[in-house]
Write a structure and sequence with these properties.
This protein has 11 helices and 14 strands. By secondary structure, the protein is α+β, with helices and mostly antiparallel strands.
């Protein structure tokens, strides 16, 4: 199985790299044909014949119209700096185009990528299915494991009307390409409000409720309450779990509502102190989870781990990213009462004083085996 590295900017609206459904479909096709040198060599005529031979979703049924859209998409991909044509003339359908693909694209806070099976273009029967599947797939490994969106969001993502977006999503659900769950929460008046839909590319478990995608906003169906903790229960005191939900959430409206409540709480000295304590405790938990994740990663790769503007990566994955700091194992001596002597122990350390890759290399182990952990417990010896 081969994978295609799909940049998150491609599928996120309102950035210079955002691709339309047609542009993404063609990019995915071309990327799947690339060689080990990250290059695809093909003509527009060959693209048309390739789409026909694999019975892919043509942009238009007429040959000349389909090739015209292929040409327009290639021009757009090039103008958005998603691809570069180093040789060949796109205006000539028979000209071989030497195409290379730009990677590690970022825009504001949008960064990262998702690895998708290159055969998806063949297994998913049309370009809308591939696009929608890709949008949801990138959230599979997130904290919630779901992509949360309303139909207005889908309308913006797919650049179509809300009714068209509803129809496209419904087709995906009907064809088991997506699985959807409706959610509800209580507002400040304790009224049940329908929230955004939760989408996955895999079925929800038995303890969760599968719901068909429909246009009925009634609440006769079984209600699934999204976990917003006590944020909308104004009679309840907030606790550290509520703050964890706030920090981990990617739902803009929910986070905005949380921040409004925090502003009200902090108007009094007592409320401000309570907020600061809960915020600090929640951040400590998140930092500990990150340390455990980084520790496990060091045990896996046996090398320094970098914190960069594009995420957490191993030393060998560094590709001129902006370094914010790094983690490494520092050897210390711990007294072991069972043998009445000291024993060496690896302790995780974070350093943001040295941000130059050459200086950081001095903290790497002499051998990866020194930091790798072959025990069942990846955190053994770190307590």
């Amino acid at each position: 199985m081969s994978f295609i590295k799909v940049e998150n900017v491609f599928l996120t609206p309102q950035n210079e790299y955002h691709l339309s459904v047609n542009e993404y479909y063609l990019w995915f096709l071309l990327r799947g044909l690339s060689n080990r040198r990250n290059k695809t060599v093909i003509s527009i005529e060959n693209v048309h014949q390739y789409m026909k031979s694999l019975q892919l979703d043509l942009f238009r049924s007429k040959k000349w119209e389909n090739k015209k859209i292929v040409y327009e998409c290639i021009q757009s991909l090039q103008s958005k700096k998603v691809i570069e044509i180093v040789r060949g003339d796109p205006s000539n359908n028979g000209s071989l185009l030497f195409i290379i693909f730009n990677e590690n694209l970022t825009s504001d806070n949008i960064k990262g990528h998702e690895q998708l099976d290159d055969l998806l273009i063949e297994t998913l029967s049309n370009k809308e299915f591939l696009y929608i599947y890709s949008v949801v797939a990138k959230w599979e490994n997130s904290y919630s494991g779901c992509f949360l969106a309303g139909y207005e969001d889908w309308s913006e993502i797919l650049d179509c009307s809300i009714n068209t977006a509803k129809n496209r999503i419904k087709k995906c659900v009907d064809n088991k390409i997506l699985y959807v769950k409706n959610s509800y929460y209580n507002d400040k008046n304790n009224s049940v409000i329908r929230g955004v839909n939760h989408y996955r590319i895999t079925p929800f478990t038995d303890t969760e409720v599968d719901a068909e995608c429909d246009d009925d906003d009634s609440t006769d169906e079984e209600i699934v309450h999204e976990d917003y903790g006590n944020w909308y229960n104004y009679k309840a005191l907030l606790d550290v779990n509520d703050y964890l939900l706030y920090y981990r959430s990617s739902i803009k409206k929910f986070k905005d509502d949380c921040e409004k409540r925090i502003s009200r709480i902090c108007k009094s000295d007592r409320g401000k102190k309570a907020h600061e304590k809960l915020s600090r405790n929640a951040q400590d938990i998140i930092n500990k989870e990150q340390e455990e994740s980084v520790t496990a990663l060091i045990h896996e790769v046996g090398d320094v781990i970098l914190k960069t503007d594009k995420g957490i990566i191993s030393f060998n994955e560094y590709n001129n990213e902006d370094i914010k700091g790094f983690w490494y194992f520092k050897e210390v001596n711990r007294f072991a009462p069972e043998i009445n002597d000291t024993v060496p122990e690896n302790v995780l350390e974070f350093n943001n004083n040295f941000l130059d890759i050459d200086k950081i290399s001095a903290f790497r182990p002499k051998s990866a085996d020194l930091w790798k952990n072959e025990n069942d417990d990846p955190f053994a010896g770190l307590n």
